[in-house]
Design brief:
The complex is a heterotetramer, with 2 copies of chain A and 2 copies of chain B. Chain A is α/β, with parallel strands linked by helices. Chain A has 18 helices and 21 strands. Chain A folds into 4 domains: 183 residues, Pyruvate-ferredoxin oxidoreductase, PFOR, domain III (Pyruvate-ferredoxin Oxidoreductase, domain 3, 3-Layer(aba) Sandwich), CATH 3.40.920; 175 residues, Rossmann fold (3-Layer(aba) Sandwich), CATH 3.40.50; 71 residues, no CATH class; 107 residues, 3-Layer(aba) Sandwich (Rossmann fold). Chain B is globular, with a radius of gyration of 20 Å. The chains are: A alpha/beta, B alpha/beta. β15 of chain C pairs parallel with β2 of chain D. The complex binds thiamine diphosphate (2 copies), iron/sulfur cluster (2 copies) and magnesium ion (2 copies). One magnesium ion binds next to α3 of chain B.
Chain lengths: 560, 283, 560, 283
């Protein structure tokens, strides 16, 4: 027997190792067969402050994090004070005996006896792992994977782990919170959203990424850097975000499927480049990892307030697609789709994620590497009219794209309005033809829209509408409402532009009560839905305190 | 054999008498002398009168945003190291709006030839001061002349140890063609600041003004001598030296990226076996 | 007797002096008592190409330009070929005899005899002026105003003018197209939209402008430069647009009412700064003079395609106001209003104009300088709680703003989320309070919205909806429809954000046919109206060839 | 009399051992030595660890965007020439994202003191290479070290004829305070590049590393000697000179604008008579 589900929250200062231990714990849980959903909360500083790494581990598939804590691993005293209130009735606190924290629910650990200073982290991991019922060897394997197999540190880590398991194994049952046993499944991956974006991009043939560091996007290029050599990628830190997107456009023009990743303020600087991508019809994937604004805002927190900004970014009019992955799998697959669309329709495609999803580790079924459909480059088409004209007014709006230097054909692209052969023009008829040509691409993009997903009974009493990273929380809130007898359903938008009303408007109309759940203050998706369908969403659940939407939060707000 | 005619003849949108015409001629000559065929060359430009130049040449062109040609050129070089990449833009583009990219390009030593058409004024927007405009240069925007000292690109580039720094003058077209040819042949970043008259908006630094001052660096000038280069960088008011002011070999930027050694990135398919291995590391 | 209205089109190459002669002709017409509407069309080059300066002059008040030409003054042969087709049946062509253009409608002028090379322009002006019935002395006075009263050139100009008047005065009546006589009115101003924006700003107390040149916005700072010393303004050309807006914010923080002016691509670079203005609550007026995009597009033409872009520019959420003047008077008054709102609600306020309006000279009633209400700075309020806190959570959302260095109180502003005293914080409750405080300012801004103007009968058969520079064209198209018996009305939006549905939605609902007239391809105002009211505009008239909307264009499109 | 305490004591978000602490102390000392009261001083900063510094001082603060402090400071100076404006930000802020503004500020000679907290790394974003990172400085983003040569701000500033160029070290706090005091007193643009250890992300250029190399410029060093300054600008690997490297008097930027001579723009009402005259010209 054991728990079907547990939330383990590790709390402490920046620099105490949460960012290392957390992922090790996750990977161990995933290897052991559990599902996990991670919420990381940290501050814009390197040492000190208060950070948490919360893992919701479950026997059953879960997709959202919860607010209640079952196991609180406190790396400092402050953590106990801050999070004790979140403990479930049976919850326990694991804290260094030296803190002198008292209470029925406190397990005071004699870390001093278990390990030397720098290995105490691993000892803490061991205690937690043991108490939730993980296998020592399994955990040791994961630790080895992180720290390598050789050197003194490895042996010391192993020893600390062993001592911790031994000590915790000998505790009274009341301190144990073992998860119910599951059969160890076939191998699964432990990935967070940003890793999945990076890997999705690589799998789709991305070959170039330029970036300027910005939380919470930086782990995307950093993941690409790790695999750059084996996967034949060029990743370059640019002097600023303007350079980053212009480099990506240069690389893309020259044939490398290209991307940039940034966050709000950095994206703001890329806006002129986005318009350039639209005008020159150069493929580029732009990942925007949202955090609370305006300006610098809360740089390490989460929000969903850049939807309208990204949607309208850039002067002038040109087509685009905007994806908003709802989980780690969607991060992988929608980034692939963004790359595909960017190449196919020759322009910018966006992936809108946020800090919560970026840092949220999950258990992911392995991707079928050989089965992944190849992403076309759509460059160098077999047929085109001679003499070659980069912007020939194709019926589909998609002109034949050749690569410079790959043939004797010259590829001329221009940020000014241009003739079909790419040269700048003041001919206003040519202008009209190009505007209309570019607009015709919208039809193709529309035809490939990933439709919103409706789940639940038809004609719902309550329909929760959401987009992006709140997917799991919204689903769980609806399930909870359903469990209480309400006819509750959800409508999740993995793609927020273009919207194809026929795909969903009936669902909105037939529901009794429609609530748009968004991680912003003004209801951006709700406004967009109204603009595109005329349907006015009656109610909104908004969150803008920097924390992710949770099922509990949604349910609380629904009541008020 | 590539010929001058391969690079075409175009109608331009420039004013009669503008120095840009001669620059385009010099570029064509240099390309022919370099035995480069049009499809092997990529011109990247920004926005301005100078930035129109690539439209008047038969070659690949990426005419991007004001001030942003260097990052585009850098990306293109990384994606296809077989392309000969040449930036053509104005003083406003490269030293004003794009100043940060110039610093970065010098530091990277990316193998891009940058031809700055330097007319000491913003031409296309009708005659405001540019970063190189001299003290007292009166315009509608600067009724008392620029509020800042002129930007000395040569001095900054040399001080930063740029790998190839030269100055040309549109009025010495053959000499200029020779400079451009050397810049194109150079492995690494090459900056050629090209003085040229703007007959419409610069009534101070005219053809005659330049002609009177410009002189070729003597045959015994040693462009690898840093101190000498620094000195030449400041010659301006009375006499302006033309030629390669400074040169220093350094590995170009592109060599730091393993995948570029395998040729254009465009041809490189996703290695599924490698991908499987990569994913395995997350299990 | 004479014509009640005439359109005079001067055409020639860039560099032939249209940009000087055109305004002289306008001012002469205005001084003589006529109304004028100018359309300037030019290319992105300094010499050559084909430019036109068209003046519609009228005895009655007019607000739009028309397409038909009554007097075509051709500075080169090409002009004749390009514009002959636009001539009204009684139209005439005034061309240099040397061109050898033939035809009934051609008046061949022996310029060679009238003046030497550089004075021929003035001679041409003289011929046109004489033929449309202007007084020689009046025109001479205007010419003097432009070229000064002294020097050889003045005498030569005067002589050329005299000869031209003498020559033209002796022509047969069939070449004359005199405007009907009007009484010379009290003095009026001849201003184009950009001049009015600049003067409006100065009159409202703007003290600082930073800019980076960009057509068609540049004439705003250039006008400010002309008056900088007498009006105590600081105008600085920045190294780029990012610097421009950040300088303006620095100056504004330190107490100078500040503005920037730019166009699409330059504005794209300012977007991060806009968000900074929102977060730090720093007043700034941002003028965006639209031109066709994307990217460099058609840099010297007109369009209205940056409405949504400006509206959503900047990451994160913060209030703003967006004005869209419809004529030169509105340029003046709405820029004043923008300054007022920026100061009062402490944030960005936008003025959205376009190339057409920027360059369109009109006759303007003099402003009542002494009667202009002073624009408050709203800085240094008399009352605030001690200790001073820049972001004290005022009920109105508007916190007390002091100026640094003006008292011993310290003024701390931050691009990060902050506490009330302006210091960066990671306190999520403080975050929520500040988000809500900032949002409360929306109420104040809403309360001051300049409402859309409805003109025409209630329950219109056709309601033409427009915004910004198309005001005159839309009004005239409706008048034309009305003249033909239709119940036609117009709804003009001088302010496009926020929209207050109660101010106009009934008008939309009660009209039989609603047509949104916009200078863009996708119908941005129509979409915005739907987002804010749910009302779907059924029909659209779009123009995106780089030319301004004209009554004729609208009527043509309505028919199809 | 202003005292150190007037500048307050704050809790910081910095790592224990960080060089930023000493810099803030030096700044306070310099302010006190300059007899400036908190309300007379405006600190402008960007984003980064260094850019938090103004929050730990009792003064006016405009904490703006990453890389954009110089334009904000410039605007503030123009609007109120009575304010003593000091920029505090990192090497990434000033030499990376904000490179173009540094060039412009030097050219303008705006009377702003710029303190660059130079830890040769991007601290706040967790240790990527900064423009000053040295060859071979390995990070997660640069597994083989930076792809570009380090930016030598001193050399560039001197080459541009910046009016005051100095280098300090957080470990020589009194010396640094003296430099900052001189910079504050300087009429025109002053750049102080302040080396400091980042204990979390720079394990190469540590306190000891700096300590071993840094030495004060000798008493007989003449900072008005351009050639000497250029030479000192390149001393780095073995020995790093501290002090005022270069100095050259030029009229500050603000003096080019008539209205600033009348004091803060904020107090200046619209002159209606002048306005009427202005409008008259359009009649
Ligand atoms: C972002 C942006 N800002 C401003 C402009 C307007 N603009 C076009 S060309 C130019 C200046 C051109 O000067 P320079 O680079 O010296 O070229 P020149 O015309 O003198 O050859 C400017 C400011 C623009 N196109 N884009
Ligand atoms: C436009 C923008 N891009 C990126 C960032 C993210 N960012 C914050 S601080 C920083 C680098 C800081 O480095 P540095 O200026 O050297 O300061 P340090 O932290 O080392 O003191 C970056 C890239 C940002 N805030 N804004
Ligand atoms: S404006 Fe000047 S630079 Fe431009 S084409 Fe004319 S002469 Fe040449
Ligand atoms: S990360 Fe480095 S620079 Fe930042 S506070 Fe820590 S030690 Fe200082
Ligand atoms: Mg120029
Ligand atoms: Mg740093």
């Amino acid at each position: 027997m054991g728990e079907r589900e547990l939330t383990i929250l590790i709390g402490g200062e920046a620099g105490q190792g949460l960012a290392t231990l957390g992922p090790i714990l996750c990977k161990s849980l995933v290897r052991a067969g559990y599902y996990v959903v991670v919420t990381q909360s940290y501050q814009s500083r390197i040492r000190g402050g208060h950070n948490t790494f919360a893992v919701r581990a479950s026997v059953d598939e879960v997709a959202a994090s919860g607010e209640a804590v079952d196991v609180l691993a406190a790396f400092n005293e402050e953590t106990v004070g801050l999070h004790r209130g979140e403990l479930t009735p049976a919850g326990i606190i694991i804290a260094d005996g030296a803190f002198g924290v008292e209470g029925e629910d406190v397990l005071a650990v004699p870390y001093e006896e278990l390990a030397e200073g720098r290995y105490r982290n691993v000892a803490a991991l061991g205690v937690v792992a043991c108490l939730v019922g993980l296998d020592e060897e399994l955990v040791a394997g994961v630790v080895e994977g992180y720290f390598g197999k050789k050197g003194k540190a490895v042996a010391e880590n192993r020893e600390a782990l062993a001592k911790a398991f031994a000590w915790a194994g000998a505790l009274e049952p009341r301190y144990r919170r073992p998860l119910a046993a599951v059969e160890r499944p076939a191998e699964r991956l432990t990935l967070n959203g940003n890793q999945a974006i990076a890997l999705g991009a690589v799998s789709a043939g991305a070959k170039f990424c330029a970036f300027y560091p910005m939380t919470p996007s930086t782990s995307i290029p950093l993941t690409l850097v790790v695999h750059a050599e084996e996967m034949g990628l060029v990743v370059e830190q640019a002097e600023d975000e303007i350079a980053a997107i212009n480099m990506a456009l240069g690389a893309s023009y020259a044939g490398a499927p290209s991307m940039v990743a940034t966050s709000g303020g950095g994206f703001a600087l890329m806006v002129e480049g986005v318009s350039l991508a639209g005008m020159t019809e150069t493929p580029v994937v732009v990942v925007v990892a949202q955090r609370p604004g305006p300006a610098t805002g809360l740089p390490t927190r989460t929000e969903q307030a850049d939807l309208e900004f990204v949607l309208r970014a850039g002067h002038g009019e040109f087509p685009r697609a905007v994806f908003a992955p709802g989980d780690v799998e969607e991060c992988f697959h929608l980034t692939r789709k963004a790359l595909e669309l960017a190449q196919k329709f020759q322009g910018p495609a966006f992936v809108l994620t946020d800090q919560f999803l970026a840092d949220s580790f999950r258990a992911v079924e392995p991707f079928d590497v050989d089965g992944l459909p190849p992403v076309g480059s759509y460059a160098a088409p077999a047929e085109f009219a001679e003499p070659y004209a980069r912007y020939a007014a194709a019926e589909s709006g998609v002109s034949p794209r050749l690569l410079p230097g790959m043939s004797r054909n010259l590829v001329v692209v221009d940020s000014d309005e241009h003739t079909e052969d790419g040269h700048l023009t003041e001919d206003l008829d040519a202008r009209v033809r190009q505007v209309e040509k570019r607009r015709r691409k919208e039809n193709g993009i529309r035809a490939e829209v990933v439709p919103p997903v409706y789940e639940g009974p038809a004609k719902a009493e309550v329909l929760l509408v959401g987009w992006g990273s709140s997917k799991g929380a919204v689903a769980e809130a609806a399930a909870d409402l359903g469990g209480n007898g309400a006819k509750a359903a959800t409508l999740h938008f993995p793609q927020v532009w273009p919207l194809v009303p026929e795909q969903f408007v009936e669902r909105l109309r037939e529901a009794k009560r429609v609530v748009c759940v968004e991680g912003n203050a003004t209801g951006q998706l709700a406004r967009l839905i109204r603009a595109e369908t005329g349907f006015e969403v009656g109610e909104r659940v908004s969150r803008y305190d920097g924390l992710p939407l949770t099922p509990e939060y949604i349910l609380r707000e629904l009541k008020t | 054999m590539v010929k001058l005619e391969d690079y075409g003849k175009y109608e331009t949108a420039w004013c009669p008498g503008c120095g840009n015409f001669a620059i385009v001629e010099a570029v064509k000559k240099a390309l022919v002398a370099s035995a480069l065929e049009p499809h092997q060359v990529l011109f990247v430009s920004g926005i301005g009168q100078a930035a129109k130049a690539p439209h008047y040449l038969n070659a690949n062109v990426f005419n991007g945003l004001h001030g942003r040609s260097l990052p585009v050129a850098t990306g293109a070089r990384l994606a296809n190291p077989d392309l000969k990449v040449i930036v053509q833009s104005g003083d406003g583009c490269n030293y004003g709006e794009g100043g940060n990219h110039l610093l970065a390009a010098i530091r990277r030593n990316v193998d891009v030839t940058t031809l700055v058409h330097d007319n000491l004024v913003y031409g296309l927007t009708k005659g405001q001061a540019s970063p190189t405009s001299e003290e007292g240069f009166v315009t509608k925007a600067q009724p008392h002349g620029p509020t800042a000292e002129p930007f000395n690109a040569i001095a900054v580039a040399v001080a930063m140890g740029a790998s190839f720094v030269a100055r040309g003058f549109s009025g010495e077209t053959d000499h200029l063609a020779g400079l451009i040819e050397q810049a194109i042949a150079w492995r690494g970043f090459s900056l050629v600041d090209i003085l040229h008259p703007c007959v419409s908006f610069n009534k101070v630094n005219t053809f005659a003004w330049f002609k009177k001052r410009c002189y070729p660096l003597p045959a015994d000038y040693d462009p690898t001598d840093f101190d000498a280069a620094m000195q030449k960088a400041y010659e301006w008011d009375e006499r302006i030296p033309l030629g390669v002011v400074y040169r220093k070999e350094r590995d170009p930027f592109e060599t730091r990226f393993a995948p570029t050694a395998r040729g254009p990135l465009a041809g490189q398919e996703v290695d599924r076996a490698a991908l499987a291995k990569v994913l395995e590391r997350y299990a």
